[in-house]
Design goal:
The chain is α+β, with helices and mostly antiparallel strands. It has two domains: 1-30; 34-80, no CATH class. The protein is built from one helix and four strands, in the order αββββ.
Length: 80
């Protein structure tokens, strides 16, 4: 009697898990929506420059963060 109850329980678990996997396969996740980029001037944040000497050169590193919701197309940083 105990063996048949275990067998029925195993079949119920297998059918339940198989049904959940089949339902997940039928509904693929939605594709992310593309956002059109910003052309021209955009809002950014700049960190404090980190200056160090590498060999015989002085190298200044500046981190730039995009604070707009859209990507910046053709971003170019110019030295002043």
């Amino acid at each position: 009697m105990v063996g048949s109850i275990r067998g029925v329980a195993a079949v119920v678990v297998a059918v339940t898990l198989g049904g959940a996997q089949a339902a997940a396969a039928q509904n693929p996740p939605p594709k992310p929506k593309l956002v059109s980029p910003i052309y021209g001037e955009a809002q950014i944040q700049i960190t404090k420059p980190a200056t160090k000497v590498v060999g015989g050169d002085v190298v200044t590193t500046v981190l730039v963060k995009n604070v707009d919701k859209a990507p910046i197309a053709g971003f170019v940083a110019e030295e002043y």
